[in-house]
Amino acid sequence: MDKQEKVLKLIKQESGKTTPLGTIPNDECYTSMQDILNELSQWSHKFENKNIICPCDWDIVDDEDDIYSLRIDFDDKGFHGHTNTVKSISCLYFTNPENPESKVIPKEKVDEFLNKRIKCNFIRTFVEHAKEWKIKSITASGFNPATGKGIRFQEVDFTQYDICVTNPPFSLYNEFLQTLLDSKIDFIVLAPFLNRANPCVGLPLMLRQCYLGYGRKIRMNFYNPTATNKFKTKLVAVDWITTFDDAQKEINKLPLTNGFKYENYKDDFVIMKNMTMKDGTHPIRVESFRGIPDDYYGWVFCAIGVLDVLSYDYYEWYITNAKGYYNRIKPSSNPFIHRASNEMVSNPDTKGFHGVVLRRIK
């Protein structure tokens, strides 16, 4: 049984009808229109004449017709109004899983379809700004683990599109992100904040295969708060990550300065003796980036929030977390001599850690 099947089995056993979409309660956070617009409006120049794919949505439209895929095409000759420059909308229906049926939404029903049927906030945002952002097309596909219907992200041919924009299921994040990286498609997607220090997100960030976007450590809800669920919410911290480096380039221009020198406060820093670097030194530990001395050129261990302000031009950095800070996936990109020692992991006085090691390079 592969990982996908195990996850789906777990969802069906433990979730059932406990959540509206049959999802794991902590698997995918609800993405509001405002959070989407806040980020995507800053990348609008990337969308001109592009075919955009939004996979992973389990509720693209009102599900009475079992629509799990749709494509909206735009052009200057499309009919105007609320739909901007919509040329056509085609949907794939899974009412009969053995024989999915494709239909085109009649032009006279397009406005009603977009206003009343679309539930995906990514699609809503793109439709509202299609003319302004000069988008060529939007394709959305979804898979509902509660019913087993739809299109899994592993089945999407990403090479047919220019940019992927979505909020994927976090339980499959490693596989999802690797799928995008292998396909060489540009993307702007959400990721769990804590995954900055895990290989599935931290390693691609470290290797410059992708970058943090503008929205970082933003708080999102696990569910859509409605009257039906008594406006119940559960917050999760997430990042936008992307193949575009525009946001990082802005940070690179600003050297990290805190206004104090190491020699004056060196007795305040804890030396992490169980973390040994290849140069034989041990990092000093700071609680946040605000504690990094301006004149220190040795290794520093810091919380993952430092990536919000870290200039890649002034610092080199590497991910690390607790038992596995030795990077087994790509050892050549590793500044450590060894993994965390048994003493550090088993010592009750030593808490587990995850974070970033860094040092100034200029």
Task: Please give a structural write-up.
The protein is an alpha+beta fold and 362 residues long. The chain has 2 domains: 3-248, no CATH class; 262-360, no CATH class. It contains 10 helices and 17 strands. Strands 1, 2, 3, 4, 5, 8, 9, 10, 11 and 12 form a 10-stranded mixed sheet that branches. It has a 5-stranded mixed sheet with strand order 13-14-15-17-16. It has a two-stranded antiparallel ribbon with strand order 6-7. Helix 6 links the parallel strand 8 (163-166) and strand 9 (186-192). The termini are far apart. Mean pLDDT is 81; it is low at 10-26 and 342-350.
- Work out the number of β strands: 17
How many helix segments?
A: 10
- The string of secondary-structure elements, in order, is HHEEEEHHHEEEEHEHEEEHHEEEEHE
Tell me, rounded to a whole number, the average pLDDT.
Answer: 81
Q: What does the overall shape look like?
A: elongated
Radius of gyration: 23 Å
How much of the sequence is in beta strands?
Answer: 15-25%
Domain module count: 2
Main sheet overview? 10 strands, mixed
What fraction, in percent, of the residue positions are helical? 10-25%
Secondary structure category: alpha+beta
CA(first)-CA(last) distance: 50 Å
Please mark out the parts with pLDDT under 50 across 5 or more consecutive residues, or reply none.
10-26, 342-350
